[in-house]
Q: What sequence folds into this?
């Protein structure tokens, strides 16, 4: 009798996640399985000072869990490399390196994208409230800053995607300016 | 005491009093000028100025450990607030936010006078389109985030241009809003003292202030485990001075007590002991007086050398008492004094060679020792006899002399083994000749290894500048220096563009010449001129010209701003940066342009070529230091050889026999070989002062060889002569040996070389004395 109860409980435990609605935990598990790849991106920045948005394009590549390279090709070549906590920007032969450990606000900002890419729920929840909607095929993850210091920079971050592939990241800055990063994966064999 | 004796004594006393008065008023110093060239070349002068007055010599690095990051940050802020209020500190930086607001504000206000991009073309339609287009592109990048609020006032990006020049160096880590070490476990501060690097008292006061304010701050915060680490050239100077002061007292005391004990054991008479110390006191005082009169200041290390001089100058008294005790004064004057005098003269030759040294410390040691020995010998010859008369009752040392004689007499059987040993030593030295010498000037530095390591660690943690590579310009006025700095900068810019140089600093960066500022202001259009150009330039741009009204008014206002002067920079850290790079001295002004090497390092030849014909001087501080030291070493080599040559010439003239000369010189040469090989085997890396030590082995050791040589005349050495030689040798070895206890490399090297060398010189002289002359 008791054996059957235990077996039933175990069975229930194993099947429960599959039965429940698509949730943050499952999304994170999906994302964490993504080991990296290359993608084209188009970034559109809407700035109140300017009459029309600035569009930049290029390629980005991600290697789990903490290496992200963003290579802007237009309007002006620039390489941004995030390797662990070192962020470096190369532009016009000038190279700028920033140790993110020195910049808690910037680190929180970076963690939003890095945490999503690597499916690191703990890192995301340190600074943001997470809200997930949609299905596994077409999900929308909204990050709302929980810290005042970060809220002073960014109001909201919206990430959309399909399964373990991120398709867009939208930042709504505190001053109303927006930037939308659309990502198109490059298929690799 | 006879009238004549009284008169002699009175004369001596007067001389001593006068000497004491001079010594009392002498300036004593324990700073690094001991090591700095007395007659520097223009390049070396830059080196010396940087060491004495340069900004790097006034930087102190501070690390705060213990507690949590937040607690350390609070301590760091509190310490900064306390120290910044004190006149002893020019600047206290800890990286806290807000501390650079004044700089940014200044740069922004004067951006059109300071930015090198400002010229007529920059404000033409095409120039505006390019510059503003660039700024808009930058908005697309994360680097443009900070630029956004400034864009309406500074669309051409002058502040970005200025800031990119300012922040080119590596920034330290930061934790809880203040600078931190690489591992984040310590809060770091960078402090610039008001006192010059050469002002050791000022540096000591500043360091004490930092320590006591830190203690007070930590107590106020209730943080018991907080600790402070500090380093920098100022601390080195203070510690070295303390070490040298401490050593002078300690070494002189050890040497004096040991020698007094020996003398009392021999004389068993307070009267003879006191008389025997008379030449020592006179010699020491005379040495200080001579150095003070000739050099103006007396180095602490020179006084420390006195410990050795005590051991050497006491010998003359010993010879006098022991040798005249048995034979009487007249006989001593006739039979022994000529030999003693020749010994004195050889010592004088040895020390005298050092007088010519361009290394001021060495010249002082030479003068001090030479005067001291001459004075001690003179007092022995002319004052002691007057005071003692014929009444030198000394206990009979003949038994001791006999035993010594028997012992020394058996030494001749060691001739072949000694020669074999010396041959082996020579072979060893020849084989290892490449590894014998320490090629670095730091070998002479009294800074301890631990202090050097701590300094390196703190320096790496905070990224403090080391200013190894400099370009130096000379000019008659400040304006001329700034104009020259701008011209030199233009040449360096080409190297930066090629990538062979990462960057450089220049005093003209934040204080451009009046000419350059005026030219920039003249190229600024009026608002009425600028408006149509701006509209034309921005026709297709996402940025509408009507949003840039503040830009128009800022440019208009900049046309009439008064020029930036040094006084305009007061209250910003830029003012200090300019002061550091623009120095006024008696002959005019010097401008310094420190270079930041690129990834392939610095190609000195390329930089010299780029500067050719401009009058600017490229200096690699490390190479210059090493060159300076190698010059010293080469000079010391020549002086030592010259000293030995003088000694040989003197002995050849006095002895008038090649055979006798060889008999005197052979044991000395062998002693030098064996001592140096011994030191090498013990792992000592030889430096300049070991070389000087070799010269002194010859100069001091020749005294013993001369007595044996004289014995050849008389077919035997009297037992009391042997006894006096043994005791004199003992005191000399004690005097020089005491220096071996020193932590100051200059003194230590002389001690470990001459101490054993003197004993060996006596033993070998006995070993190689012609057979029939043996006791």
A:
């Amino acid at each position: 009798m008791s054996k059957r109860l235990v077996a039933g409980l175990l069975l229930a435990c194993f099947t429960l996640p599959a039965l429940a609605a698509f949730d943050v935990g499952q999304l994170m598990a999906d994302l964490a399985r993504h080991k990296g790849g290359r993608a084209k991106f188009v970034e559109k920045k809407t700035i109140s000072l300017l009459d029309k948005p600035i569009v930049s394009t290029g390629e980005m590549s991600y290697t789990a869990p903490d290496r992200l390279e963003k290579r802007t090709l237009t309007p002006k070549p620039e390489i941004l490399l995030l390797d662990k906590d070192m962020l470096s920007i190369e532009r016009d032969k000038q190279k700028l390196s920033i140790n993110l450990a020195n910049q808690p606000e910037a680190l929180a900002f970076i963690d939003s994208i890095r945490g999503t890419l690597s499916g690191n729920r703990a890192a995301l929840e340190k600074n943001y409230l997470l809200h997930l909607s949609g299905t596994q095929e077409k999900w929308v993850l909204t990050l709302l800053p929980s810290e005042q210091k970060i809220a002073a920079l960014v109001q909201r971050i919206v990430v959309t995607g399909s399964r373990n592939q991120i398709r867009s990241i939208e930042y709504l800055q505190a001053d109303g300016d927006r930037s939308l990063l659309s990502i198109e994966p490059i298929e690799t064999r | 005491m006879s009238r004549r004796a009284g008169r002699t004594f009175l004369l001596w006393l007067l001389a001593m009093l006068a000497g004491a008065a001079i010594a009392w008023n002498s300036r004593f110093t324990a700073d690094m000028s001991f090591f700095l060239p007395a007659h520097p070349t223009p390049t070396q002068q830059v080196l010396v100025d940087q060491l004495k007055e340069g900004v790097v010599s006034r930087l102190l690095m501070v690390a705060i450990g213990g507690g949590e990051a937040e607690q350390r940050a609070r301590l760091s802020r509190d310490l900064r607030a306390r120290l910044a209020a004190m006149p002893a500190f020019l600047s206290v930086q800890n990286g806290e936010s807000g501390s650079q607001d004044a700089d940014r504000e200044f740069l922004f206000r004067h951006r059109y006078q300071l930015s090198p991009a400002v010229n007529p073309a920059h404000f033409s339609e095409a120039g505006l389109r390019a510059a503003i287009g660039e700024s808009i592109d930058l908005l697309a990048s994360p680097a443009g985030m900070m630029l956004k609020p400034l864009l309406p006032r500074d669309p051409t990006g002058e502040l970005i241009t200025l800031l990119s020049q300012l922040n080119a160096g590596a920034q330290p880590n930061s934790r809880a809003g203040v600078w931190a070490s690489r591992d984040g476990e310590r809060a770091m501060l960078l402090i610039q003292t008001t006192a010059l690097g050469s002002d050791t008292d000022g540096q000591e006061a500043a360091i004490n202030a930092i320590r006591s304010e830190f203690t007070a701050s930590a107590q106020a915060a209730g943080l018991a485990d907080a600790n402070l680490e500090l380093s920098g050239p100022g601390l080195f100077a203070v510690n070295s001075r303390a070490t040298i002061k401490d050593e002078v007292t300690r070494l002189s005391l050890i040497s004096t007590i040991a020698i007094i004990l020996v003398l009392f054991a021999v004389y068993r008479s307070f009267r003879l002991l006191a008389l025997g110390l008379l030449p020592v006191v006179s010699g020491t005082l005379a040495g200080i007086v001579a150095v003070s009169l000739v050099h103006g200041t007396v180095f602490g290390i020179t006084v420390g050398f006195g410990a050795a001089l005590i051991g050497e100058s006491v010998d003359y008294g010993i010879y006098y008492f022991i040798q005249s005790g048995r034979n009487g004064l007249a006989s001593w004057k006739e039979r022994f004094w000529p030999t003693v005098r020749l010994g004195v003269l050889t010592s004088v030759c040895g020390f005298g060679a050092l007088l010519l040294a361009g290394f001021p410390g060495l010249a002082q040691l030479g003068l001090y020792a030479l005067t001291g020995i001459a004075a001690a010998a003179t007092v022995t010859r002319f004052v002691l006899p007057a005071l003692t008369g014929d009444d030198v009752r000394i206990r009979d040392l003949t038994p001791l002399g006999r035993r010594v004689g028997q012992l020394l007499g058996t030494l001749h059987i060691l001739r072949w083994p000694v020669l074999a040993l010396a041959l082996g030593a020579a072979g060893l030295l020849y084989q290892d000749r490449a590894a014998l010498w320490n090629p670095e000037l730091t070998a002479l530095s009294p800074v301890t290894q631990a202090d050097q390591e701590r300094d390196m660690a703190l320096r790496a943690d905070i990224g403090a500048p080391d200013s190894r590579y400099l370009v130096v310009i000379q000019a008659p006025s400040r304006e001329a220096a700034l104009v020259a700095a701008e011209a030199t900068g233009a040449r360096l810019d080409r190297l930066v563009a090629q990538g062979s140089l990462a960057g450089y600093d220049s005093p003209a960066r934040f204080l451009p010449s009046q000419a350059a500022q005026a030219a920039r202001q003249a190229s600024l259009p009026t608002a009425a001129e600028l408006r149509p150009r701006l509209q034309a330039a921005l026709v297709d741009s996402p940025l509408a010209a009507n949003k840039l009204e503040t830009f128009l008014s800022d440019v208009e206002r900049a046309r009439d701003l008064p020029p930036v002067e040094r006084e305009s920079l007061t209250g910003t850290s830029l003012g200090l940066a300019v002061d550091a790079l623009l120095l006024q001295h008696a002959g005019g002004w010097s401008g310094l342009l420190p270079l930041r090497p690129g990834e392939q390092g610095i190609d000195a030849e390329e930089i010299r070529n780029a500067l050719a014909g401009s009058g600017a001087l490229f200096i690699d501080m490390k190479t210059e230091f090493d060159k300076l030291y190698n010059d010293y070493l080469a000079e010391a080599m020549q002086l030592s050889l010259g000293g030995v040559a003088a000694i040989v010439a003197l002995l050849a003239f006095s002895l008038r026999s090649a055979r006798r000369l060889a008999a005197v010189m052979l044991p000395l040469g062998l002693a030098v070989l064996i001592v140096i090989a011994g030191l090498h085997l013990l792992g000592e890396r030889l430096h300049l002062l070991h070389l000087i030590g070799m010269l002194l082995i010859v100069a001091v050791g020749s005294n013993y060889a001369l007595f044996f040589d004289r014995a050849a005349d008389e077919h035997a050495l009297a037992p009391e002569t042997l006894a006096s030689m043994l005791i004199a040798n003992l005191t000399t070895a004690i005097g020089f040996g005491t220096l071996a206890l020193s932590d100051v490399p200059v003194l230590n090297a002389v001690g470990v070389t001459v101490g054993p060398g003197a004993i060996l010189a006596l033993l070998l002289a006995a070993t190689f004395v012609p057979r029939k002359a043996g006791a």
User: Anything to note?
Assistant: The helical segments of chain A are 2-19, 24-32, 104-118, 121-127, 148-151. The longest strand of chain A covers residues 36-46.
